[in-house]
Amino acid sequence: MPVKLPVYILTLADAAERRQPLVDALDEMGIPFTLWHGVEGRRGLPADYAHMIDRAAARKKLRREMGDGEFACALSHHLIYRDIVEKSHPLALVLEDDARITPDLRNFLAQLDRDDFDLVLLDHQNARIIENERLQFPSGQIAYRVIVQPYLTSAYIVTRQGAVALVEGSLPITAPADWPFDISHLRTYAIDPRMVRQQGGSLPSYLNHERPNQPLRRVRPPAARFLTAAYWRKKFRKLRSRRIS
Q: N or C: which end of the chain has fewer CB within 10 A?
């Protein structure tokens, strides 16, 4: 059974060696893909993208300067969301070029027959889920509803409606690429166990040199949050959740 949904590999033009293991694995599984060359920010962000970012808001949010490479990575994901919307893809898989896929990915994609979600995370970090809110896929995998904001954009399936929400919520860019807003507010699910892992230490990071070496002082949230119903709803749901990554 062929894989019909489009597969984007987010990479840079000169990153052939970095993406080669992923390209080889997809070729071996017979999964077609498109190389999506992201925005190049290592030598400064191109002026064409200046209207899509807000450096002052990023500085206020992060309490540090956000590097051009970080802006470029977030912009690259945004442009993929836009392409999915413009081409009206019902579903699409996005992989960063350091993703390492497991053999069961092909069967999962080939049998994928539902789109009653906005995002399904195939890789994730700090994902907390609700056990009784789940999606069962024909290939046997189970994805659970995410209850708090997770990390990693290394591998995810997004529907067109999810891409629309991400496009509308992305701009201006004020934070790195681990999601432009709290995606637990969307219909976001996390696969457990994960079918994709982000390659660690052996690959150089494009962004680490732009980030501060020391952790910044944590800012205490305002006490007024305890008076909101939204805070206590989230607190209650978190108490009922389970961490899977």
A: N
pLDDT along the chain (245 residues), means of 10: 95 96 97 97 94 96 93 97 98 97 96 96 96 94 95 97 97 92 96 91 49 46 64 67 91
Output the CA–CA distances (angstroms, integers) from residue 225 to 18, 89, 111, in the order listed.
Answer: 44, 39, 44
Q: Which residues contact 217 (CB under 8 A, 6 or more apart)?
A: 63
> Scanning the structure block, which residue is given the tokens 């970095």?
18
Torsion of CA 74, 75, 81, 82, to 10 degrees: 170
User: Shortest CA distance to 39 belongs to which of 29, 26, 49, 53?
Assistant: 49
**Number of C-alpha atoms within 13 angstroms, CB side, residue 91?**
18
| Residue 196: C-alpha distances to residues 95, 108, 152 (Å) | 9, 12, 11
How does DSSP classify residue 219?
A: P
- What pLDDT does residue 44 have? 93
The three-state secondary structure class of 68 is: helix
